Amino acid sequence: MSKKKGLSAEEKRTRMMEIFFETKDVFQLKDLEKIAPKEKGITSMSVKEVLQSLVDDSMVDCERIGTSNYYWAFPSKALHARKRKLEALESQLSEGSQKHASLQKSIEKAKIGRCETAKQIK
User: Fold this and answer.
1) What is the CATH number of the domain that holds 29?
2) How many CA atoms lie within 13 A of 104 on its CB side?
3) Which residues lie closer than 8 Å to 18 by C-beta, 6 or more apart?
4) Is 120's pLDDT higher than 80?
5) Is the dihedral angle over the CA atoms 34, 28, 21, 91 positive or is it negative?
6) Are 55 and 85 members of one domain?
């Protein structure tokens, strides 16, 4: 008999995001606790924990309306978040490249007035 391997936390998070992206709907926790085990194989006991980790990472939005909490995530939000991250990383890269070039220039300027000396090893 082979034992069924459990899902890692990252696999659960990915599968939970698939639920939101495929349905493009708003859910309550009890709805997700019913849907996740059937469609994605996430145990109902871990749905709340996985969902909270996604909310903490701003991948899923949560809003309290009355006495209920509603959860949602749309593909367009994820796309915009990735675009903003990409732009930030590209600007950091360009700043780093400019700094590298200026440091290379300052090294070249510093070498102009100096002469190489041979070190003697005893």
Assistant:
1) 1.10.10.10
2) 6
3) 40
4) no
5) negative
6) no
Same domain as 87, residue 53: no
Residues 68 and 83 in one domain: no
Confidence check: pLDDT of 30 > 80: yes
The whole-number pLDDT of residue 122 equals 59
The answer on 14 and 66 residing in a single domain is yes
**Token pair for residue 23?**
């349905």
Here the tokens at position 117 are: 């000396």
Cut 0.70: pTM above it: no
Q: What is the pLDDT of residue 5?
A: 65
Asked if 59 and 53 count as a contact pair (C-beta separation under 8 A), the reply is no
Beta-strand runs (E) in the chain:
27-28, 61-65, 68-72
Parent domain of 117: 76-121
90 falls in which pLDDT band (50, 70, 90)? very high
Q: What is the domain count for the chain?
A: 2
